[in-house]
Amino acid sequence: MLEAVGLSKRYGEHLALAGLDLKVEPGEVFCLLGANGAGKTTTLNLFLGFIEPTAGEARVGGLEVRANAAEVRRRVAYVPEQVMLYPRLTGRENLAYFSALAGQPNLPRETLGEWLTRAGLAPEAMDRPVGTYSKGMRQKVGIAIALAKGAQALLLDEPTSGLDPLASNELSDLLRALSGQGMTVMMATHDLFRAKESGTRVGIMKAGSLVETRPTRELGHAELEQLYLRHM
Ligand code: ATP
């Protein structure tokens, strides 16, 4: 679903990503780990088409990202660390607005509620202004927007940063559930515990290179930590 072939990004003299080769299959939850500046966000940005590679290709479902920008925007959804929503609109109204922007105007109220439910938002919260929401609740609306537009891949940057343990647990469960339904998930994170909990595979990045990938089922929490530290 997501494929990088010799993918590189240079900023002036600095090689932020150095020839990444990677395949993430449908239904995987792939967690990019690594120190600050390792190249995790750069990788996400290249798959999203936000930046242009210096060399190589990022592909989504076999399509090169920059040459197929409109189709890739439909297939891939980005959930940033801070999901930007309209604070005076309710969760349901935000979803209606962003769905309309994505080409689905006038979605029935019940349909909007179903997407929000699939993203884990409690029914009693759906008609409250988003300004009253916690970070985890805003994230759920962000995920509902992605689901409603029919995204096949979800890219998240630091999704558990600033979430309390309960909200982090809920997010882990949600991502695993979505991946079980065929969604491809790629996230950049510093949260090793959550990477083990929600990831099917981890990739450790160092100075612009992917130095190791491992299925999470092969690793205990302590082993993942040791693996991570070995590469720092
Ligand atoms: P963090 O965990 O801090 O988010 P990261 O692994 O996501 O780090 P990137 O944000 O991908 O790292 O950055 C990789 C390298 O590229 C860093 O050295 C960063 O300073 C550099 N970089 C990123 N964006 C730019 C830019 N727009 N201009 C110049 N250098 C950049």
Give short descriptive properties of this protein.
single chain, 232 residues, alpha/beta, 6-stranded mixed beta sheet, 4-stranded antiparallel beta sheet, globular, binds adenosine-5'-triphosphate, AAA+_ATPase, transport, ATP-binding, ATP binding
Query: Which kinds of small molecule does this entry bind, naming each only once?
Result: adenosine-5'-triphosphate
Strand content: 25-35%
Helix-strand pattern? EEEHEEHEHHHEHEHEEH
Name the structural class. alpha/beta
Rg computed from alpha carbons, rounded to a whole number of angstroms: 18 Å
Are there runs of 5+ residues with pLDDT below 50, and where? none
Report helical residue fraction.
Answer: 25-40%
Distance linking N and C termini:
29 Å
Q: Treating each run of at least 4 consecutive H or I residues as one helix, how many helices?
A: 8
Tally of extended strands? 10
Overall residue-averaged pLDDT value: 95
Strand order of the largest sheet: 6-7-8-3-9-10
Largest sheet: 6 strands, mixed
Overall, the morphology is: globular
Write the layout of secondary structure elements.
Elements: E1 2-11, E2 14-24, E3 29-34, H1 40-48, E4 55-60, E5 63-64, H2 69-75, E6 76-79, H3 91-101, H4 109-118, H5 135-148, E7 153-157, H6 165-180, E8 184-188, H7 192-198, E9 201-206, E10 209-215, H8 221-230
Parallel strand pairs: 3-8, 3-9, 6-7, 7-8
Antiparallel strand pairs: 1-2, 1-4, 4-5, 9-10
Helix pairs in contact: 3-4, 3-5, 4-5
The structure holds adenosine-5'-triphosphate (ATP).
Adenosine-5'-triphosphate binds near residues 36, 38 and 40.
Protein name: ABC transporter ATP-binding protein
Keywords: ATP-binding, Nucleotide-binding, Transport
Organism: Hyalangium rubrum
